[in-house]
Amino acid sequence: MTTIEDRLRDAMAARAETVQDDGRPRVAPSPRRRATAARWWWAPVAVATATAAVVGVTVLGTRTIGSAPPSAAAPPAAAGRLSPPVEQVWPGAVHEIPATGPGGRVFVPDVFVSDRVVAGRGLTDNRLDGIWSYDLDKRAFTQVAPLQDVMVNNEPLVFGDGHLAWSAFRDDRSEIWAVPVTGGVPQRIAALRAVLSSDNAYSGLKKLAIAGGMAVWSPADGGVYRAPLKGGNVSLINGTRGFYLVEWPWAGWPAHDRTVDHPVARPLEHLKNVITGRSRNADAANKRSSWTDCAQVWCLNGTTAWRRDGTDRRDLPGTAMGTLISGRFVLLNQKDAGGKVLALHDVAAKRTGRLFPVPTRRGDKAPPTLHTQEGVVWFRTAQGTQVVIDLKAAGR
After folding, report:
1. Rounded Cα gap, residues 160 and 346, in angstroms
2. Contact (Cβ atoms closer than 8 angstroms) between residue 345 and residue 330
3. How high is the pLDDT of residue 130?
4. pTM to 2 decimals?
């Protein structure tokens, strides 16, 4: 079925084909503030979280957004004051790139494989047809691998050890595939029993990563598994039953469960290093009986963040939306007398950059769909481009 989003994507792709770009850096226009309204009425920002693909080259435009001074010059936002635009806070991490690649195919950015190259999936007529990379300096797309007969889920690629990997589902089996980032033929490196939920829906993998020449992952029913990228036996890492991969080599429990009516009160309270066996439990200091999320270092709840050991409590310059991204970033709602915006906040560095306005009245223009995944936040613009934020670069 063709959805409104599909039609919008097609229209944006067609518009992007006509965009002329000389490659010079430009500053994206700052979001406009809207008048304060009595109540909310808007489609919530869709957040796709990942728990996370050389032949012809086509030259297209790219822009590294912002020519402002480094983010150290921008003070943290105080309550009741909007943060500066993301391109001013992280000028070297925010890029505007084409939304379409060779042949008019839609390019979905998934992961930065270097500071200047982002890899992702290509879609033609809303069907995945290949893995591509985009070079910010050369302003060029390169095909990494075709995907004519290879299964791919609608989930982001992950990168490590010179390879891109992804998960797939076929014939009641979960499959894990990989290909060298320099190009080649995708290889299936693992196939395992798929996990079905209580309503017979395929659950997919909770998390996929690459480390030490291995693909490592957790299925929906827990455990940390691994298999060599070159092919070989799948093995469950000892002592990880019931645990879920958080950030290699750390796994935790209990996991987030968004299928239940009542969310897990203290998600990922317990961490274990699956290599050394070392434990790192979240401290329930200050009478905290629950929280939204806990990563390897930081925990989060509402308008407050703190270290996993209970120290270094800090107030957030807004209200948190969702869970931590890449262990230290979170989306915030901010507002002042002029209106509301969605912002990206780095808990560790206490830096915040606003993304775009949040509609507050019926009839206000809907915001773009924001995609968040390990290492990357991105959204499409009305000009047929897309803004991609490299969280690894922003976190330096």
Report:
1. 23
2. yes
3. 92
4. 0.80
DSSP, res 258: T
Q: Give the up-direction half-sphere exposure of residue 337: CA atoms within 13 A in the CB hemisphere.
A: 0
DSSP string, 11-70: HHHHHHTT--------PPPPPPP----SS--SPPPP----------EEE---EE---PPP
Instruction: Kindly tell me the burial class for residue 1, based on how many C-beta atoms sit within 10 Å of its own C-beta (0-12, 13-18, 19 or more).
Output: exposed
pLDDT at 298: 95
State the pLDDT at residue 285. Answer: 59
Q: Kindly report whether the peptide bond that precedes residue 249 is cis, defined as omega within 30 degrees of 0.
A: yes
Cβ 179 vs Cβ 189: under 8 Å = no
3-state class (DSSP) for residue 287: helix
- Is the omega angle on the peptide bond into residue 70 within 30 degrees of 0, that is, cis? no
With CA atoms as reference, report the closest residue to 226 among 274, 292, 163, 168: 274
pLDDT of residue 314: 94
Instruction: Decide: 85 and 96 in contact? Cβ < 8 Å.
Output: no
Of the CA atoms within 13 Å of residue 263, those in its CB half-sphere come to 13
Choose among 395, 394, 390, 391: nearest CA to 134.
390
**Residues 6+ positions from 149 with CB-CB distance below 8 Å:** none
| Residue 291 burial class via C-beta count within 10 angstroms: exposed 0-12, middle 13-18, buried 19 and up | buried
Contact residues for 206 (Cβ-Cβ < 8 A; gap 6+): 51, 217, 218, 219, 220, 222, 244, 245, 255
- The amino acid present at 242, given as its one-letter code, is G
Q: Which two tokens stand for residue 99?
A: 């939304």
Torsion of CA 296, 300, 304, 307, to 10 degrees: -20
Query: In angstroms, rounded to a whole number, what is the distance separating the alpha carbons of residues 228 and 250?
Result: 19
* Cβ contact 134:101 at 8 Å: yes
Question: Are 216 and 248 within 8 A, CB to CB?
Answer: yes
> What pLDDT is stored for residue 58 in this prediction?
43
Residue 395 has a pLDDT of 94
> Which residues in the chain land under pLDDT 50?
1-60, 66-79
208-225: pLDDT as tens digits: 999 999 999 999 889 999
Distance (Å, whole) CA 330 – CA 208: 21
**Which pLDDT belongs to residue 232?**
87
